[in-house]
Specification:
alpha+beta
């Protein structure tokens, strides 16, 4: 469901904000040049999931606004202040601050500055510093879609400079660059003299990358490559499931291997499309910091749950009513993707094929500099916004501790020696799913040379590229 915080935010601010500070109020000071700093502290003081573990965020840390301002004035950079108010990175890998909230708003709609190459990065054989890139897929209608580059293309350098662990971020962050291509043979990277010039433009990516129905014996297998939980494409996602039901699909292979997450609402809707027989039952439950959790439990417990549904607005959800689903994953499968897997497990059989997932069991909301931290009445003095972690999610059985990732039922890592196009029935992970559906499956062994994993990918290079969020308007 869509979360609307306006009314109870005011109550929260009154009930749990600055409880012991008689002279503190929830109007951010604007006369002392600390507008952004006040916004950061007060937003984290109210919402941050790990508030209790950060002494400087305690409600009684400052006696009044003057003391708070004195503390905030010791920070010359809002980003340094923000980082100082977070717990250690091993616990909080995902909270971010941005100086232009339009970046976040665009990202939620699938809009990024992008050349269309979605890629993974791996270490060269025998090295801990030299790396190379491989193309996972090309976004349609992008600059790259008109260039001689495709899934499986290997690049070892950018603008003639070999990629390393110390330079890849700077080389790949520019708007225009040329990738230098290579051949791949059992881990050996051999430059082939070819190169492709790429240009980033503002691009809207439809997360529904591919959909088809595969006939295999008596089975009609729906196959969906879904690359992001982008809420404004939920209607198209529902239409895709309408096509699957019309085709008489008996099984579903959901390809989330490159899906780094997004909307919690969309995750609940996708789970409802896969099933259909659990309408109104609990899909996932949210856990907030102690103060907000207590408030919700006493005043609005419905805000803590996301249920299976049979509708999107006035439209009926097209459901497959499955009791078993096959989900393809990699280390890039994160947040809302993991939420779908974890939320479905108490209800149906989930066969996970591929690699262990990222392990992101927490979510965020967007906080703006306004009296309610919502979009309305935002400050006109700056465009800073925060996306702090505010919730942990658990499923119907109370399980949510998968920080180390969700383990696959059938372990398989994409083999760069054998990268068929997505949707090809011989492609490694899809073939394993079809085999499992039609024959009951058998263990697929990989040699040690095929166990190399991506250590980064194009989505993880973007700030907020792997988050799970609750809409806040």
């Amino acid at each position: 469901m869509r979360k609307t915080f306006k009314v109870f935010l005011l109550l929260l601010l009154a009930l749990i904000g600055f409880q012991s500070c008689e002279d503190m109020d929830d109007t951010i000071a604007v006369s002392n040049g600390l507008e952004v700093e006040n916004f950061i502290w007060k937003g984290l003081n109210l919402y941050y999931l790990w508030k209790a573990d950060v002494p400087d965020l305690a409600d009684d840390r400052f006696a009044n606004q003057k003391e708070l301002d004195s503390y905030l004035s010791t920070y010359n950079d809002p980003f340094v202040l923000f980082d100082s108010l977070r717990v250690q990175e091993s616990t909080d890998r995902f909270s971010i601050l941005v100086d232009d909230y339009t970046v976040l708003e665009n990202l939620f709609q699938g809009i990024t500055k992008n050349n269309g190459v979605d890629f993974g990065l791996r270490y060269k054989q025998g090295s801990t510093t030299e790396i190379f890139g491989w193309v996972r897929y090309i976004i349609p209608n992008s600059d790259a879609s008109n260039k001689p580059i495709q899934r499986g293309s290997i690049f070892y350098a950018v603008n003639g400079t070999a990629l390393t662990t110390s330079n890849y971020q700077s080389l790949l962050s520019t708007d225009d660059y040329t990738v230098n291509l290579a051949n791949y043979d059992n881990g050996a990277i051999t430059p082939n003299g070819q190169s492709v010039a790429l240009t980033k433009t503002e691009l809207t990516e439809n997360p529904i990358f591919q959909k088809q129905v595969i006939t295999a014996g008596t089975h009609k297998i729906a196959y969906l490559v879904y690359n992001g939980f982008t809420a404004n494409f939920d209607g198209q996602l529902n239409s895709a499931f309408g096509e699957f039901t019309a085709a008489g699909a008996t099984d579903l292979v959901l390809d989330l291997r490159y899906n780094s997450g997004g909307s919690v609402q969309t995750a609940a809707r996708l789970a409802s499309m896969i099933t259909g027989q659990f309408n109104g039952q609990l899909f996932a439950k949210q856990q907030w910091n102690a103060a907000i959790q207590s408030y919700f439990e006493a005043n609005n417990p419905g805000q803590l749950v996301n249920n299976f549904s049979n509708s999107i607005g006035s439209s009926t959800i097209n459901s497959l009513n499955l009791s078993k689903v096959y989900i393809l994953t990699t280390k890039s499968t994160a947040s809302a993707s993991e939420l779908v897997i974890n939320g479905l497990k108490p209800y149906i059989d989930v066969v996970q094929i591929g690699d262990v997932t990222t392990g992101k069991n927490v979510g965020s909301i967007t906080l703006y500099d306004s009296p309610t931290f919502g979009r309305e009445n935002r400050s006109s003095k700056h465009k800073y916004a925060m996306q702090p972690i505010v919730i942990k999610t658990i499923n119907k059985d109370g399980f949510g501790d998968y920080q180390a990732g969700l383990q696959p039922t059938i372990p398989l890592i994409e083999n760069l020696n054998d990268l068929s196009q997505l949707g090809n029935q011989q492609e490694l992970l899809l073939s394993a799913a079809i085999q499992s559906i039609t024959t009951g499956g058998r263990r697929i062994d990989q040699s040690a040379s095929e166990q190399s994993r991506d250590f980064k990918d194009s989505k993880s290079l973007r700030r907020f590229g792997t988050d799970m969020y609750i809409e806040n308007k």
